[in-house]
Design goal:
The chain is built from nine helices and ten strands. It is of the alpha/beta class and about 270 residues long. Strands 9-8-7-6-5-4-3-10 form an eight-stranded parallel beta sheet. A two-stranded antiparallel ribbon has the order 1-2.
Length: about 270
């Protein structure tokens, strides 16, 4: 990985990326919210619920890249307004995906963090544009991408002058069909060997099954992840996208409690050994 001039971690302190009151690389950051922003009351209700449960950042998709052109594509600008309103009401910073270079600057007016999705990981024009934006960026790993390819995409962003990059392992495509993807937890410590950037996981997309999300959240913390991102919906069967992998408000609350307990244990163990 000779070309990783900015991303490589040799001789560098681990980066800390601040988004609102959350600091990636300092404490475990929990991102939560629906896959898609569907209405004003839907995103507000879930924002209040995830805030009460202990989430640090509110997520929600206003622009949705879907496999089928006939699937729900998101509310666009109206969805961003609903998301920003919910963020202001709860005091949570918001993150949303940006799909087009033409949208970066004005989407950044509504969101405190920008997400580059797995399908756009190697959209180099988009990477350069968010690199000029100076908003923190969550860069998801492509479903067929190696660690070197993923980190080189982070290099594109940083090379444009934006050092605020957080990496997200969201599952890779393997021959396994039981799960939606295979959450590559080995990527967490592997990336930390190579790079100084924070790395989080996405157990929602990494498994595609509600029953597997909590174990993968706990395993992520044990592996040293700097955070997790989860999809939460007030009524998953009615969700307009990814209904089979969305957590209820109650399920999310239960996961946060267990994750925070494990986080405290890991810190106490680290302090005891140091």
């Amino acid at each position: 990985m000779e070309n990783l001039k900015l991303v490589a971690g040799l001789g560098k302190e681990r980066s800390k990326i601040q988004v609102g009151n959350a600091v990636f690389g300092e404490n475990l950051v929990i991102i939560a919210g629906p896959c898609s922003v569907e209405s004003d009351d839907q995103i507000m209700e879930t924002a209040l619920a995830v805030k009460a449960a202990g989430a640090d950042i509110l997520r929600g998709g206003a622009f949705k890249p879907r496999t089928s052109p006939y699937a729900f594509q998101g509310l666009g600008l109206q969805g961003l307004k609903y998301l920003a309103k919910a963020g202001e009401a709860t005091g949570l910073p918001v993150i949303t995906e940006v799909l087009d270079t033409r949208d970066v600057s004005w989407v950044a007016e509504f969101a405190q963090m920008l997400q580059i999705g797995a399908r756009n990981m190697q959209n180099f024009s988009l990477l350069k544009e968010v690199g000029k934006c100076q908003r923190p960026v969550l860069l998801k790993r492509g479903m067929y991408s190696t660690l070197e390819e993923w980190l080189n995409c982070a290099e594109y962003i940083m090379n444009e002058g934006n050092p605020q990059v957080v990496l997200c392992e969201r599952g890779i495509r393997t021959f396994e069909t039981y799960t939606r993807n295979t959450l590559d937890l080995s990527a967490v410590p592997a990336v930390k060997e190579i790079s100084h950037l924070p790395v989080i996981t996405d157990p929602t997309h990494g498994t595609g099954k509600v029953s597997l999300i909590k174990p993968m959240c706990l395993a992520s913390v044990a592996a040293g992840a700097d955070g997790i991102t989860l999809e939460v919906h007030r009524n998953p069967p009615e969700a307009l996208s990814d209904k089979d992998q969305a957590l209820t408000h109650g399920e999310f609350d239960e996961i946060v409690k267990e994750v925070r307990l494990l986080e405290r244990y890991m810190k106490e163990k680290k302090d005891a050994l140091s």
